[in-house]
């Protein structure tokens, strides 16, 4: 008998009918002899509807109240799933994040989990109940206010619960049936992976793969929780994220997959005087505006003692970052702030590249042959990323996928839905 | 400076626009220098929509989960009102019933308040915030599960908070602008009352008046909380429910108003053998089925040593009560169970009838003149109620209202809406 944590996203719960299907799966898992804990996101459109209502009464709603409002969504879905389970012959209790012992920082809208003490969940399991826990929420340690966890919050709730309960697996359900060697909608012969080590999944998530959120993968890696990515529309086993690349014998290390990202923009500050402190001032200004940045590049200064600093960030934050940086212009004496939101990022991920020195060369050659120009290169031990024109992204993904022979024989199965 | 508790019902909150109007009133009350605590019901149709969703996944949903589900409604409305208040320049925090210290029994769907310890509300007021508290809910003292309070739950939450906070007044807002001498939709010259003592309001509520729930009036009476019934659509002062009939000098005691009730049915068990225990068995059977009963009549037995027992109950419970009683037929050896759901109840309420002996006579004469036949009479110290044919209810109400000269000169103002 195992302890299984399952997480269902909003699209898996978008109607009474889908809720009943999900309940069937949960009851089947329980009847197979497992202890089952389920984390549900809010139903399909609920969160958006609540956001619309909020906007009607206040265009800039206070964050504490936004968290009180949005958490109603998960309360509703978890109670309904518990009811559906009860209609199908098993017993279930639903809990809010607070009741389940999810304790967080007090940053409304983007709280971090400090600790999980799920005694009411454990008690429910001991009494033979299935426990439903509202995802995406917790209670602030200091203020005792209700908080929401920001992006990937429900996945993180599920993994954190699995860690605290010492679960055997954390299954993340959506409308995709696993992690693929590339997005199957772009690459028809993309292959579903059976397993992926944590570090590679981290790189894939950071490089644009939307299957799992970076945060939940990092949490799983730190606590050794195996994650299984499965579809709520089929019984396929999915992809298991587990293990470290350190455990893979060097000769067996592989190239795992290709990720792409259309959501970034590029900012270059040109002619930055090459003296200590300039880069610090630039990045502090961006950080103070609460903007996250991704790739950073600075090359050597030219003969005039000036250099260019380039970084990428999400397009949504582009205009704000530009205006913050413009304000520094006179003070720092740089030439200009250039903004480019037609870039795309494509990445190759695999532990194998540590032991195969020709990978970078093959990568660049494949792009060149496909007529794709590389504008920026950024690498880690197990990842190569390049910035290119976004219009060429699909070609680039296919070229690299072919060059590294990642494709399989079966046609990839693509379900309706946008991939969450 | 006063401490004011305000309660807004679902129809006052049915849209973003209504929510903004309500927020205006709350902010105005605060800006006049008062401490303000607000209890909101769920928005208009929310509770019904949630009930429909529940029914789709389980026709007989577990009660614990129903409470988890329904309480989402009040969470949403209170958070939205807090946001609307913030948009209008005041500060507000919303709290669940649990966070506000509303501790209850663990009877899901019909919990009773055991205690209210509103320390977080007091703290909010001390910091200058307006406190919103979700109505209709609390937390069970023993299980720590979330509970809902049953009918009149939001009114009861508001009065209980007012009592715990020692508030100066508890204002109950709906779409009617006060307590009238009779339903203005039936009696055009019905007069709005300025004040009504607690005992009379209790009788009016028990006799069919839907303005306030019996429970909340009793709570207010016990703790001496003045209740003001007002409309959320106007600035009229409304009706204040306060004081005891004992404080009214005997000569000034009046007849206050006429209430009517279409929601009851009548059951008569005929030919009950007149021996000890028969009535007890009958009423125990009904009580065990968790059915509340209203008026009870048993007259002296006939020469054959048999009598009829009659009682009234809500129509919704009629069929169930009949079937429970039919099962006793052979055992108790009564003749038949007669069921009549075309009855109406009309009541005259007023402390004055204690000191004016002709009231019962005038009451019966007025009905007789209007051609209304009295089937059953039931009285208390300050109330006369009769059961008549429901088709004659409107005529009966008008006849009594005229006979006791309760009407005023102004035409009663009736707002759109069904009276809550």
TrEMBL record, chains A, B:
Pfam families: AA_kinase, ACT_9. Keywords: Amino-acid biosynthesis, ATP-binding, Diaminopimelate biosynthesis, Kinase, Lysine biosynthesis, Nucleotide-binding, Transferase. It comes from the Bacteria. It catalyses: L-aspartate + ATP = 4-phospho-L-aspartate + ADP. Substrate binds at residues 47, 74. GO terms for biological process: diaminopimelate biosynthetic process; homoserine biosynthetic process; lysine biosynthetic process via diaminopimelate; threonine biosynthetic process. Its EC number is 2.7.2.4. This is Aspartokinase. The lineage of its organism: Bacteria, Bacillati, Actinomycetota, Actinomycetes, Pseudonocardiales. One of its GO terms (molecular function) is aspartate kinase activity. GO terms for cellular component: cytosol. Pathway: Amino-acid biosynthesis; L-threonine biosynthesis; L-threonine from L-aspartate: step 1/5; Amino-acid biosynthesis; L-methionine biosynthesis via de novo pathway; L-homoserine from L-aspartate: step 1/3; Amino-acid biosynthesis; L-lysine biosynthesis via DAP pathway; (S)-tetrahydrodipicolinate from L-aspartate: step 1/4. It comes from Saccharomonospora piscinae. Belongs to the aspartokinase family. ATP binds at residues 7-10, 180, 185. Residues 267-351 form the ACT domain. Catalyzes the phosphorylation of the beta-carboxyl group of aspartic acid with ATP to yield 4-phospho-L-aspartate, which is involved in the branched biosynthetic pathway leading to the biosynthesis of amino acids lysine, threonine, isoleucine and methionine.
